[in-house]
Write the structure tokens for this entry.
Amino acid sequence: MAITLCAAGFQACEQTTTQPTGFEWQIDRFDDIKVLRYQVPDFDSLSLRQKELIYYLSQAAVCGRDILYDQNFKYNLAIRRTLEAIYLNYKGDRSSAEFAEFEKYLKKVWFANGIHHHYSMDKFTPGFSAAYFNTLIGAIPAESLPTDFGSREALLAAIEPAIFNPTLYAKRVNLDADSDLLTTSAMHYYEGVTQPEAESFYAAQVDPRDSTPVSYGLNSRLVKENGVLTERVWKSGGMYGAAIDRIVGWLEKAATVAENDHQRETIETLIAYYRSGDLHTFDKYSVLWVGDDSQVDFVNGFIEVYGDPLGYKGSWESLVNFKNLEATKRTATISANAQWFEDHSPIEPQFRKPEVKGVSAKVITAAMLGGDCFPPTPIGINLPNSDWIRRDYGSKSVTIENITSAYTEASRGDGFNDEFVLRAEDRRRMDEYGSLADNLHTDLHECLGHGSGQLAPGVRGDELRNYGSTLEEARADLFALYYIADPKMVELGLLPSLDGAWAEYAKYVMNGLMTQLTRIQPGKNIEEAHMRNRMLIAAWCYEQGRAENVIEKRVENGKTYIVVNDFEKLRTLFGRLLNLVQHIKSTGDFAAGQALVEGYGVKVDPALHAEVLERYATLNLAPYAGFVNPVYEPVLTGGQITDIKVTYTEGYIDQMLRYSRDFSFLPTVNE
Ligand code: ZN
């Protein structure tokens, strides 16, 4: 599971950090996007061997970039390569308004790893015409264009409608339950397969007696060949093999400088999985990975399933990181008390875990982001996703603190709280505790929330289907919200006072009911799982607490504000909803899950939405942010690596073009 940024336009906090002044945090801005840099503090304090390990893993992290483009949509690589060919070769007027629109579109495609918005999943609308596009293409050498389609005409026939026809491939992931989720989604995890066909294909593989099932379908495209459903597996020698071989090449180098034997075996098992495509080997790798507590760590593979409306297929991603030893003391405290939290959770006793296993929680410093973690980046991760591995071996949970601190630094004094937070006392609490409370929320969500609870006997865990991701995020958030206001937080020294919790409460419900709508276009409903979860929680508590006015929608000077009148009662409501969501997950009650999500987490109040968008527009902020990576360069002395240098000067366009030039290994068409 990944956790994305909670607040639309992360609030500026007065948290004192020891960042060097003069560092340029924000390096680009277009449309609803800002591109930031992150720093890698303490990289220089690592050993040479650790730096070398990070270097090899960071190269592997970039090698799978094309895979994600192709997974997201079948013509993404063709479109990206065509746009890049134009960008690099067009010698006509580059200062025109139309060319500026063209460049903006290309920047958006890079940011989203395709032509659909990374968060809303809606296809981008280009700000230039098809006629202009044709002019650009006609003005560049034909040999600079992708050749896989056979001719320029065939290439254009494929990509032009994809770019310009608004009704074609309109949504990458459609979660609207009234339609066939596969045929209405543009993602490329299935080809010519309907939802019922895919569901029965995977249902037939499930053996109810198997208590350690593999993650069916995780690493393949499901296609129909001569009328028969078959999986095209992503592996060396199989689909995406050319990119996978490069990843394996760097992993082999990484294995030679692993921190210890356990980590070496972990990396070698990942290599074996990439070679065979065998999901049992992937599980073996995941078990080893959970048990690897080395300082340098990484994610690399087909991991998260948010890009598949049915939740089977893993998008390729990578995150290379190392432990932030000082901040990890905080999560170590939480982990050490995991059983206490589980035992006191406000859920039905039979759904509590009798024995919480191996909650390994740490705060990390991201060193490299790749695939589905790049450029938009999660701020926390809890893996593996396999329910039985979590049950038997626990999970690893991380908070990525150099990413959250980059958000904080980049949004200092942006006026967001002044506009949307009514009471001075709330603003003061957010200023004082906002950053600490955010990090603590993420820790609780990732370290404990996702790992808590257990299923009833006979329940597999995939019964909630397209509502599964939203309800799982809700469960983890509710666990975090309930406990962040527990006196235990102060007792353990994690919060100086419960004022920190009240800062988080005020911000959470304001975001869920109101300010996260800045990320939604007028007329649209909420689609993304984390956003649905936040609205579900806030809207349910608003309704349930209405008689006692726990949460109030107050209008002053024509502006709507969300005000929490009773924090303690709100905590009780969070606990009640946690109990309800846990019951739904533990019993696999699809109908109840559907009712909860559709009833509270989807529909947007158009009047409030319009107001929020108008107020937000006056602040001129970008609701989404992502990152460029630092550049790592080996220092060679006599052919030996004697150091790895890290620099933070590469620009957004330069990095994207370099990755496309040096790390592009797949054909334009991947069948
Ligand atoms: Zn989560």
Notes: Residues 66-171+638-662 form one domain. The chain has a mean pLDDT of 93. Residues 1, 3, 445, 450, 473, 476 surround zinc ion (CB under 6 Å). The first strand starts at residue 2 and ends at 3.
